[in-house]
Every structure is written in C-alpha cells, then in structure tokens.
Specification:
about 15% strand, about 280 residues, single chain, 12 strands, globular
C-alpha cells in the first residue's frame, strides 16, 4: 500500500478540466512516481466522468473524491478538507498541487524528503506578507501586528505530513474563514467585477486571494511553515525546464483596469492553458 498521496482539486469551472488534463499528462510523462504514490482528484459531481477518462487515457490508477462546494470561495478552500477524505489514514505524506502546474522532472526528489510537522511550500518569487494575496489583509482585519517584510509563500504547492498538527492548522484556517466571512458567496460567473474579493457579501469586504491569505496568516501565527526545503524545485512561470525544476506554476498574470481599479481574476484559467501548453510542448 502506498503511503504517499498527491491530490488536486477541480470545481465549477470547466476550463480547469483542460488544465488538470495537462497536469496529469506531465505527471504521467515526467513524474516517475508510478506505483509509489496515489493521485487523488477532488472534483464536482459533473466532472467525475471526465476525470476518470483522463486517468484511463493515461493509465493512471487514480482516485476520485466528489464534493460539491456551492461557490468559488468554498471551491478554493475545500482543498483544506483533505483530512476528511475517507481513506486519508492510509497515507503518511500528502502533496497538494494546483491544477495550473506542470511537472517537469522526477517527483520522487520531493516525495522522498524527510518531513517535520510543518507546511512546506516555496518562496513565491520572494513575496512578503505585505504583498497582495499573502496574508496582510487578515492581519489588518483582525488588528494583529505583523512584520511586512516577513517572507510568505505560494499555496500552489503544499507538502505536509498526515499529522494532528497540520490537521489542526487546516481546521483553524477554515474556522477563520467562517468567522471573518460568515455569509460569503461568490457570483462571479467569470466577471472581473469582484475578482479577488474574499468576502463580497459578508460582514467584511476585504480584497484578497481567496483562501491563500488565510493559510499564510495561520502559518505565520503558528510559526508552522518552511519555504526553504523544496524552494529550489518550484518556480512560477518558467519559460523552460531545468535540472532542478520539478514544479512549474503558471499563476494568473492577467491584470485588467476597470472603472479605474486594477483587478486580478483569481480562480480563472484565463491565459494559463496557452502558457502551460507552450511550455509542455
């Protein structure tokens, strides 16, 4: 039985099926994992058959867990529900991958690393807490002092042990989301109008990067993250592969000015597929 689990999520937006297809192709071609780990896709009910076709086409013995978040915000933080997965106790190590990633080299280099009870990620182009989407809005909303120069991280890659400490971390993040955004609902429908608003209909109107701000906030508060161990294996928007590059993240780089305000359509596949395809081929 494998003791390592890799997982990704795809909800609501059919455009992300193209991304997960390309991610799985790169996993099959370059990941070199084979029977050393299981791959789980958490998806909306309407995507189950498509995901299974991807697995069959690539000869991946993947697993599917169907959940049904009601809006985009829930769709983002449902990755934190991984400890509710019925078979989670089979696994010791867990690697989360965003759908807008390409696997470039042997994943075992990361999967074989000895882990401590912290959340592992990468430095996200040396972003700090004060950068958009990296936690400052939660500190400010809760009136908690923070060091604006403290290094933050990307949540496109999360690597962790199956342990009580990380389970509590994820549960605390979800509790904060519910406390700060008790009635948050997303009705974006692909519109830029409220892109990036973490709680557009809740008590608080804070503009952020969905659950990433909350995850970083909690990790900083708990002193529970490591951005050094796997940092050299991860990069954003690399133009070409390299010996150390294992995970290439194609984050959103589409900015639009509307009514004098610059918005970033987080949670949208705009422009990602073309860049991922060009890199992969």
């Amino acid at each position: 039985m494998n003791n390592k689990l890799i997982y990704s999520c795809v909800f609501h937006n059919e455009g992300y099926l193209d991304l997960i297809d390309l991610l799985l192709k790169s996993y099959s071609q370059f990941g070199n994992v084979a029977d050393k780990a299981d791959y789980l896709i958490i998806c909306s009910p309407k995507f189950k058959d498509a995901i299974q076709r991807f697995f069959n086409k690539l000869n991946i013995k993947g697993k599917i867990w169907v959940l049904n978040p009601v809006n985009k915000f829930e769709a983002c933080y449902y990755r934190l529900k991984i400890f509710d997965y019925p078979d989670i106790d089979q696994y010791d190590k867990i690697l989360y991958l965003d759908t807008d990633l390409i696997i470039c080299n042997d994943l075992n280099t990361i999967l074989d690393i000895d882990l401590k009870e912290v959340l592992y990620s990468y430095a996200d182009d040396d972003k700090t807490i004060s950068d958009w989407g990296h936690g400052n809005i939660i500190f400010e909303e809760l009136n908690i002092d923070f060091n604006p120069k403290q290094k933050a991280f990307s949540t496109a890659v999360l690597y962790f042990l199956n342990c009580k400490r990380i389970k509590k971390l994820f549960n605390d993040v979800i509790k904060n989301i519910h406390a700060i955004c008790p009635n948050s609902e997303y009705t974006l429908s692909g519109s830029y109008d409220q892109a990036g608003k973490a709680c557009p209909n809740g008590e608080h109107h804070i503009e952020g990067s969905y659950d990433q701000d909350f995850i970083i906030f909690q990790c900083v508060i708990d002193e529970l993250y490591d951005i050094n161990t796997i940092n050299k294996y991860c990069q954003n928007n690399a133009d070409k592969s390299s010996e150390n590059l294992i995970l290439n993240h194609f984050g959103s780089n589409i900015w639009r000015r509307q009514n004098g305000v610059i918005t970033i359509p987080c949670g949208e596949p705009y422009g990602k597929m073309a860049r991922m395809y060009n890199f992969y081929h």
